[in-house]
Design goal:
This protein is an alpha/beta fold and 222 residues long. It has 2 domains: 2-131, Response regulator (Rossmann fold); 139-212, Winged helix-like DNA-binding domain superfamily/Winged helix DNA-binding domain (Arc Repressor Mutant, subunit A, Orthogonal Bundle). It contains 10 helices and 6 strands, in the order E-H-E-H-E-H-E-H-E-H-E-H-H-H-H-H. It has helices at 10-22, 34-44, 62-73, 88-96, 113-124, 132-138, 153-163, 168-175, 179-192, 203-212; strands at residues 2-6, 26-31, 48-52, 78-83, 102-106, 128-130. Helix 2 (34-44) packs parallel to helix 3 (62-73), helix 7 packs across helix 9 (179-192) and helix 7 crosses helix 10 (203-212). The chain is elongated. The termini are far apart.
Length: 222
């Protein structure tokens, strides 16, 4: 796995690079600003980019803009975004694009090395990795899709873990149930949300989007 790191904080940037190299991951370049990052992507053609949301000169959205541009230049590039706190607009847009190989973690998650590396590998393998704190903080937005009220409490719990990017095996381990039980819950979720099989759509992404757009305190079926 070849990685480029874009982070303006030199201490965190070098710490990330050292951590990844200790795991035998090839950090081909590090960058302190968006322009340097894009040059590194063009030169090294990495598999994954780890990108800070806020970078010089304005420390607003330079990292996100650069990540979008890097993805345009190299469509198969996986991107793991790091942020000090939840940027709601970007986090929801991340899933709304329905693009594989994207992740969003809070920087505090980096200190939990095993969780960080798990998310990194998931994104590199083409999956989605959303920080659980990001998921919980996003549950304050729009009115719920009324179909979500059809879900049982357990189905709602499974959907929340899907929103973090976990696959069925990982959800089964988290909930200490069989993988077959999770397959059944997922099928029920798709049915209750009227998500029919369709090669043109990713039903897991569609289900998660409806979940993230739900307001807090919505009812679930008994």
């Amino acid at each position: 796995m070849r990685i480029v790191i874009a982070e303006d904080d030199a201490l965190l940037r070098e710490g990330l690079a050292s951590l990844l190299r200790a795991e035998s991951i090839d950090v081909v370049a590090t960058a302190g600003d968006a322009d340097e990052f894009l040059r590194a992507v063009d030169e090294h053609r990495p598999d994954v980019a780890v990108v800070d949301v806020r970078m010089p000169p304005t420390h607003t959205s330079e990292g996100i803009v650069a990540a979008v541009e890097a993805k345009r230049r190299q469509p198969d590039l996986a991107i793991l975004v790091l942020s000090a706190y939840v940027e709601q607009a970007f986090a929801t847009d991340l899933l709304a694009q329905g693009v594989q190989g994207l992740g969003y973690l809070l920087k505090e998650r980096v200190g939990r090395v095993e969780e960080f590396l798990e998310a990194l590998h998931r994104v590199a393998d083409g999956g989605t990795a959303l920080d659980p704190d990001v998921v919980s903080q996003l549950l304050s937005r729009q009115q719920a899709d009324p179909r979500l009220s059809r879900l049982t409490e357990r189905e709602d719990e499974v959907l929340a873990l899907m929103a973090e990017g976990l696959g069925n095996t990982a959800i089964a381990e988290r909930l200490v149930v069989t993988e077959g039980a999770i397959h059944k819950h997922v099928r029920n979720i798709f049915a209750k949300l009227d998500l029919a099989p369709d090669d043109r759509a990713d039903r897991r992404v569609a289900a998660v989007l409806r979940y993230l757009e739900a307001g807090p305190g919505r009812p679930v079926a008994g």
